[in-house]
Amino acid sequence: MRKNIFYILLAILMNNLGCTKKNADLVVINAKIYTADDNNFIAKSIAINKGKILEVSDKNLNDIYQTNEILDAKDKAILPGLIDSHCHFYNLGLDQQVVDLRGTNSFEEIIDKLKIHDLKNDSEVILGRGWDQNDWEIKKFPINTLLNKNFRNKLVVLERIDGHAYIVNDNALNLAGIDENTLVKGGLVLLKDNKPTGVLIDAPMSMVDQILPDKTINEKVRALKKAEEISFSYGLTTVDDAGLNSGIINIIDSLHKIDELKIKIYAMVSVSKNNIQEFKKSGKIKTPRLNVRSFKVYGDGALGSRGAALKKPYCDDPHNYGFLRTDLSDLKYYANEIAAMGFQMNTHAIGDSTVSVLLKEYQKVLNDIKDPRWRIEHSQVVDLDEFDLYNDKILPSVQPTHATSDMYWAYDRLGKRIEGAYAFKDLLSSSKRIALGTDFPVEKVNPFHTFYSSIERKDLNGYPKNGFQIENALTREETLKGMTIWGAYFNFEEKEKGSIEKGKYADFVLIDQNIMEINPDKIPHTKVLKTYVNGELVYQNNAL
After folding, report:
1. Residues 296, 270: contact at Cβ < 8 Å?
2. Does the model's pTM come out above 0.85?
3. What is the pLDDT of residue 426?
4. Who contacts 144 (Cβ-Cβ below 8 Å, separation ≥6)?
5. Taking the mean position of all CA atoms in its chain, how far away is CA 249?
6. Given 3.90.79.10, 3.40.50.300, 3.20.20.140, 1.10.10.10, which CATH number is that of 83-89+216-499?
7. Which residues of the chain does CATH 3.20.20.140 include?
């Protein structure tokens, strides 16, 4: 009898042990989870512990894991944490502190906005950003006469939407030492009647930057935290900031360490010979939230301000070829130094001349380097004969909303060369991967605008009806990967993020409608319900 009782108790004990649940901090159930893994697996449930994914399943995992928190997705879609592969995160925060000039229809409207701002603030310095002469009835660069008339004793600096031109008043010109004789390589001081108009394109802008008062530490921290708040609200969990100095990088690192900043940042160091030497000594920086292993180089200017370097002149400015912002000798120097350091070179290239130079110079330097993943940022206008020079060593990082913003005037600039512009599918065919971003604050932060532009090649008004050069649209699956796992790959981080897989950080986003299935016209209106970083809820939409 005792023997039978012993075996019965043993069987009960073994059964109870077999039913013991594993521990998890969070279990997500009843979701449609687009994992973005190699198999494009669509899961139903994930279990998370200590910031990482324990298991991904097509069955609910709450019966297997003991947890204090269950997120019932109620059949809504979940995406991996979204990655913006080219943006200006810190500048987004700074932009919240200046006059917003986006959407203005004339220079006179800008003056009215500045007057209102000045009445409210009464500052000695007036900063603004976002004007675009292509949106005005008279599509010409302005002259600063009205700035001088209304703000004679102020320092007024207004940045074009693409960040490649300023319009400033004479007070700013005088303080910066800019006159009709000023010549700066890699840029232009625009003149009329042999007098500066106040418009500065690319390189001369730095002369004005030098006279602007530096931001305080508190202002810098506030900018970073505001940019994080905005980014999380759109489901971004990693941002690639295309050009930071070591001072801002150090502030980011410090905020990360005290848990005051949670967003993950791939920081491209603004290239200079001094910065090259600094990072030669200090080396790469890699923490769970910060990755510093690349340099941002400016190859040329922008198409909108006619500073992009073209092989043939602009169709609407037949004496202008644009210009290189960085001399070819310096590009070669940077390429060799960056390669020797084992860093990544990420170069801004808009015009087909700049893209061509970079493809050839990259190729020379990378010949014996196994896995460099060097990037051509924007890859905006490419010679039709040179697409095949992109490969697994030379990768394109592009911004789909640039195509649908620029399409109204790009043909005027390029003529037939438009066939090689914004050619995302052709770039993907050569490189096998493509990274997608916004270039915010040049464009809006919203990644669902990126998604829509990528697959439909239309603006938010649904124009053009059949899509702009629709043959270069990406599929939904390609677009999702370009915003997640391929973005992680471009950052050398594909083993830790970019897809929802066992062992990776639990970065994911719950959205209110399924962008992989709904009518494309509804995609731009998608809202983020929740954003998680390392399994921690960092944003919740309380309005929905």
Report:
1. yes
2. yes
3. 98
4. 167, 168, 169, 170, 197, 198, 199
5. 16
6. 3.20.20.140
7. 83-89+216-499
